[in-house]
Design goal:
Number of domains of chain B: 1
Oligomer: heterodimer
Shape of chain B: elongated
Shape of chain A: globular
Largest interface: A-B, 31 and 30 residues
Distance between the termini of chain B: 18 Å
Strand order of the largest sheet of chain A: 1-2-3-5-4
Number of helices of chain B: 1
Number of domains of chain A: 1
CATH class of chain B: Mainly Beta
CATH superfamily of chain B: EutN/Ccml
Largest sheet of chain B: 5 strands, mixed, barrel
Largest sheet of chain A: 5 strands, mixed, barrel
Order of helices and strands of chain A: EEEEHEE
Number of helices of chain A: 1
Chain lengths: 88, 98
């Protein structure tokens, strides 16, 4: 898993039917200091995150397992909203 | 598996139920010389290993194995898991390392 910041949403009406009901959020992967780690990606949302929140997202097929429809064709899924991070 | 160092932890109350009962640790991959050589990632700690901040750990990064190590018996959103806390790494022939 990785941490990311939710920066936007995606609206798509013509899409794979298994993505119906899945909220698609644009997320920017970040490290614990808030520095960007790679380009923004789109992830399905499983915990009701909002724009501006720091979240945890799972990659590959595990990302879809957190969604209401585990068969959704999704390779990134938001699985937790981060309250705080501590690093040495 | 990855050799990684635990550099922090994450507190999260609103999360997927498969994360309940696990510590969420921030790790970074380290080389055999102990230098960081990868981005920060977040992992759950395994059922048997009690890793803490500053430990060198072994992390499995394949989803099926990670869920197995985290005692998650159904498809869940876990793709990294700590499976061991390293006591020592012994590489007698340094020339083998590229």
């Amino acid at each position: 898993m990785n941490s990311a910041k939710v920066i936007g949403t995606v609206v798509a009406t013509r899409k794979d039917e298994r993505l119906n009901g899945v909220r698609l959020m644009v997320i920017q992967p970040i490290d614990s200091k808030g520095n960007a780690q790679g380009p923004p990606v789109v992830a399905g949302d499983a915990v009701g995150s909002g724009i501006g929140e720091t979240v945890i997202y799972a990659k590959s097929k595990e990302g879809a397992f957190g969604l209401p429809n585990p068969e959704a064709c999704c390779d990134a899924g938001i699985t937790a909203i981060i309250d705080s991070m501590y690093t040495i | 598996m990855l050799i990684a160092k635990v550099v922090g932890n994450v507190v999260s109350t609103q999360k997927h139920e498969d994360y309940r009962g696990h510590k969420l640790l921030i790790i970074r991959q380290v080389g055999t010389d102990g230098e960081f050589c990868g981005p920060e990632m977040i992992t759950v700690d395994g059922a048997d290993s009690d890793a803490g901040v500053g430990d060198i750990v072994l992390v499995i990064q394949e989803g099926g194995g990670a869920r197995h190590a985290a005692r998650c018996d159904h498809p869940g959103p876990i793709d990294l898991c700590v499976i061991a806390v390293v006591d020592m790494i012994n590489i007698p022939h340094q020339e083998f390392i590229q």
